[in-house]
Amino acid sequence: MRDSWECAWRELMRRKGRTLTNIFGYLLAVAIMVVLVNALLYSKEATNSILNRVGTHFIAFVPAHIPPCPECSVKSPDEESEGFVAYGVATNLIATSFVDKVKKLPTIYDASAYLLFRFKDQKDGHLFTVGGFDPDDFVVSKTCCAAKDIVKGRFLLPNDRGVVMLEKAYAKLKKLKPGDEITIAGSIFSVIGIVNPPIRPAKADIYMHFDDAEKVINKRMGTSSIHNEANVILVEVKSSKVQDEAITSMKNLLPGDYLVASSYACYRPAAKVMGINEDAAWMLTIIIGICAVILALKSQLSSVIERRRDIGILKAIGWTDGNVVLQILAESILQAMIGGILGCLVAVAILLFVPIEMLSGIGTPAPGAISPLVLVAAFLLALMGGIIAGLFPALAAARQRPADALRSL
Amino acid sequence: MANEMTGEGDIFLECKNLRKSFTVKRKEIRVLKGLNLSVNRGEIVAIVGKTGAGKSTFLRVLSGLEQQTSGSVIFEGHRMENLSNEELALLRRENIGIIFQNFNLLPSWTAYENVEAALLHIGMSKTTRREKVKTLLNNFGLGDRLDNLPSELSIGQQQRVAIARALANEPTLILADEPTGEIDTETAQDIIGHLITPVREKGVTLTIATHGIFPLDIADRVFYMKDGMLVSQQ
């Protein structure tokens, strides 16, 4: 076996031109494969990251002006200005027990009851919205506002009562800052923080604890008070891929097509387009790999045909078919190994010096990393290519009858 | 009728009614027409005949490189027609040294590598192998030409490399096809000296095919071959 490797190495050294061509072929294929796959993995991660920002959460509500559903009630003090709203549309109320049912759905990661009420300032008549949530619920950070959105002061804590956070634009409009007080429906609240959340489906001008929101709304509503009810359900699904399934499941919980789920519609085509690019890149990677193996096979086969006489002589002086197979295979494998290692090194150099965002065409805050698994897989693929490219010529060489080779001289 | 040329003593190599035909363009060409020959251990046998008499084919059949059409070759008790390609290769590797008509050196291998080729895959350590090849080539006066390619050697030197390769595996049988065929008389004498000395020293059986240049007085027995048949014995 050792003799075969030694002989193979010598043979490669004798045919430097062909050897370098084959090695370069493997190098190129492996380098392209590693760079492409790394870019793909990065792109996939980046895509998921983007989709997760827009594709894993939505809000659900029951619009008003439709026949009341079994779990809904209609309570609105002033339909023209004040009342429960979502996306500027008046909504009905849903029992918070419904949220518990939603939470149990297999596609749902988290769900939370949310009160979104539009008030009319009794002094100047301006309209503003109040959002009431439980700060303990994870989904609040994805659909409403999160601690990282604080620009001044601090975020609402689960035990905070009698305090509010203001949306940055609203605070600016009303010239309010942390420490100031604000009156809502006759109740005075202390401002503890200013938030500036990005695009979120359940944004409001003022945020407070769910319990406080319930109290202040009840104060405004007078006799038709609410209890254990919410007008919006904040939902976080387990993956952007199951969002449609989650919405359908939720709608099935409330028969009659009452529920409206509002999500970002762009994630579907985005995911699809990104998927097409990914498929194309995978296809390209496979084609490059196959081409490299075919070219190496052709080159190795030509080498065997050129050395027909030599192989005949070696068999005549006692080399067995197995010795010949091992010799040719070892040559092919050595070239693949060298090409594979060099290809990995070149790929690492490319990935280190060329920003991966440029290669993948997509950027996210996540840093691009070189996957050791991809490097190992590419090297093993090159090795496998070497075996495949060497096996057929090796068997062809072994089948050759020495007398025929010698007689044809 | 098959012709019979037998010797007396320890029969080492035996051919019985050996026939070999080739089909070229649907026409059967009979090259060997029923040979019978017995060669004793340590004997030097010369097969003399004109070009096309069938000498080279005969040696190829004896070495197992060519399969006979019919008849038997018995080498040290083994019927070669019953051996597989693998077994024939092993037999050549361990017992038979072949000197080809055109030397058949590997053109891109150095003199050293050409001789070493016969010692690869037999489990010999690299150091032992190197020593053995160097000693052999030194004995043949090629100690300073180890790294030369065959194209960089004279015809005589090339033939000496071919003989060294044939002797490298310490065979019990050497089959030499026109070992002095393409060289001048002086070089031929030198080659013969290099070939016969180790053969006699080690008691190796030597079968030489020649068309006459080879000095026949060296041989223990001389057979004449004509049209695929051994016609007489000296």
Short overview:
Chain A has 409 residues and is α+β, with helices and mostly antiparallel strands. Chain A has helices spanning 2-14, 16-55, 96-103, 138-143, 168-174, 210-221, 243-253, 267-306, 308-316, 321-353, 356-360, 372-399, 402-407; strands at 57-61, 72-73, 83-86, 89-90, 93-95, 108-120, 127-133, 150-153, 163-167, 181-184, 187-195, 206-209, 229-230, 232-237, 260-262. Chain A has 13 helices and 15 strands.
Characterize the structure shown.
The complex is a heterodimer of chains A (409) and B (234). Chain A has 409 residues and is α+β, with helices and mostly antiparallel strands. Chain A has two domains: 2-51 and 270-407, no CATH class; 57-238, no CATH class. In chain A, 53% of the residues lie in helices and 18% in strands. Chain A has 13 helices and 15 strands. In chain A, strands 1, 3, 4, 6, 7, 8, 9, 10, 11, 12, 14 and 15 form a twelve-stranded mixed sheet that branches. Chain A starts with a helix and ends with a helix. Chain B is α/β, with parallel strands linked by helices and 234 residues long. Chain B has a single domain (3-233), classed as P-loop containing nucleotide triphosphate hydrolases (Rossmann fold, 3-Layer(aba) Sandwich), CATH 3.40.50.300. In chain B, 30% of the residues lie in helices and 30% in strands. Chain B contains six helices and eleven strands. Chain B has helices spanning 55-62, 85-95, 111-116, 126-139, 155-168, 185-202; strands at residues 3-5, 11-24, 27-40, 44-49, 70-75, 78-79, 96-99, 173-177, 205-210, 221-226, 229-233. In chain B, the strands form two sheets. Chain B has a six-stranded mixed sheet with strand order 7-8-9-4-10-11, sandwiched between helices. In chain B, strands 1-3-2-5-6 form a five-stranded mixed sheet, covered by helices on one side. In chain B, a hairpin with a 2-residue loop joins strand 5 and strand 6. Chain B starts with a strand and ends with a strand. The model of chain B has no long low-confidence stretch (mean pLDDT 85). Classes of the chains: A alpha+beta (409), B alpha/beta (234). Chain A binds chain B through residues 3-4, 6-7, 10, 14-15, 310, 313-323, 402-403, 406, 409, and chain B through 60, 63, 65-66, 85-86, 89-90, 92-94, 96, 98, 100, 102, 104-109, 113, 117-118, 120-121, 126, 165, 169.
